[in-house]
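Quick one, tokens below:
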């Protein structure tokens, strides 16, 4: 669903069909400093949706309004078809039938693992009978693979064990919707990888819908069926991870989603439309061109580092665009080798990701090659 499609249904009085969560026109003002403005979103049955954006953009505020721990100024919220906010309704958190996992885990240090997990069964509205509490708690702890810690004090838990305890507690009362607020940000890199896998496994086994808040593109793209990009209190763009990676529509998304090389150009209309820039010239029809209605010949070109081949040898380009340059910086970055190249005859540096077994020195002369169809060309924003 695109943002425009979502907005077109804003005035409806009922939630969209087959959704666990429907939010329409959600607004929240915090003095003069920040405003959550006109948020529309849905989470379907058995779907993971990520809210992705920088710190302070409104992701957590949106989640807190849905959970009922923050009161919106306007809008409507339906959970599993029931109106929980709007038209004079404002259901308390314990009656919204959602699970919530906080960034800090919110594990009570004076309680055991069992006592932490059983708490929602004892204090929230749900359909689990009292004689099933013990079985349900132990079942959740086994699902989280921490069944042997059932009687341990919370103060003995590692960060990963606290995270699993928080997940067990959020799911023990069998909600259909799970809200997660930066749940992996306090874990180290290897634990984050492991917990991403575990979240997918748990979601698949339980069929629970998830709304997942994060500032990490890697987490959002790995976990989510759809990603909603947020900035400055509003939704910017919505799409599948592949759509947003390969062809983002908004300037903000293009800059926020991953590393992209960027240079400016102008379309010249001769016998065919040609993009002229200090770096390279190419026929517009060979590139991925996105018009945005500005009706200008000024364009901005984007090229992903993974789409560039780097080679010190001067071999035939074979239809690729070729640019010469010299290495100005290089080094291993995660699981790839990153090289920054100052291009010849242009005030442009291009970042290239290549095989980690490669090695270049600063000052080395290199040739960069890429297929013109890998260029993304957008009308410049006025």
């Amino acid at each position: 669903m695109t943002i425009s499609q979502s907005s077109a249904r804003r005035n409806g009085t009922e939630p969209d069909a087959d959704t666990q969560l429907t939010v329409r026109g959600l607004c929240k003002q915090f003095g003069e400093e920040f405003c959550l403005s006109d948020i529309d979103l849905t989470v379907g049955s058995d779907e993971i949706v990520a809210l992705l954006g920088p710190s302070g953009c409104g992701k957590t505020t949106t989640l807190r309004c849905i959970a009922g721990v923050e009161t919106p100024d306007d809008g409507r919220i339906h959970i599993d078809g029931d109106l929980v906010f709007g038209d004079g309704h404002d259901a308390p958190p314990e009656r919204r039938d959602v699970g919530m996992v906080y960034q800090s885990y919110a594990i009570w240090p004076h309680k055991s693992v069992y006592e932490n997990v059983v708490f929602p069964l004892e204090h929230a509205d749900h359909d689990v009978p009292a004689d099933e509490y013990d079985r349900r708690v132990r079942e959740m702890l086994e699902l989280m693979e921490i069944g042997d810690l059932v009687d341990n004090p919370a103060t003995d838990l590692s960060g990963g064990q606290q995270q699993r305890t928080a997940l067990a507690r959020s799911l023990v009362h069998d909600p259909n919707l799970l809200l997660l607020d930066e749940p992996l940000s306090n874990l180290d890199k290897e634990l984050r990888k492991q917990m991403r896998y575990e979240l997918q496994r748990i979601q698949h086994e339980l069929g629970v819908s998830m709304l997942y808040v994060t500032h990490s593109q890697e987490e959002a793209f790995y976990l989510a069926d759809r990603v909603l990009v947020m900035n400055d209190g509003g939704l910017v763009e919505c799409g599948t991870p592949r759509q947003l990676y390969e062809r983002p529509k908004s300037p903000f998304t293009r800059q926020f989603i991953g590393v992209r090389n960027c240079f400016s150009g102008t379309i010249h209309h001769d016998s065919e439309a040609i993009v002229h820039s200090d770096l390279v010239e190419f026929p517009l029809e060979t590139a991925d061109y996105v018009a945005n209605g500005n009706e200008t010949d000024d364009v901005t070109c984007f090229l992903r580092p993974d789409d560039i081949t780097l080679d010190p040898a001067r071999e035939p380009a074979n239809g690729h665009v070729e640019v010469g340059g010299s290495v100005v910086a290089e080094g291993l970055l995660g699981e790839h080798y990153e090289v920054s190249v100052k291009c010849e005859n242009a005030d442009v540096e291009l970042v290239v990701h290549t095989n980690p077994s490669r090695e270049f020195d600063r000052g080395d002369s290199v040739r960069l090659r890429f297929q013109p169809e890998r260029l993304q060309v957008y009308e410049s924003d006025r």
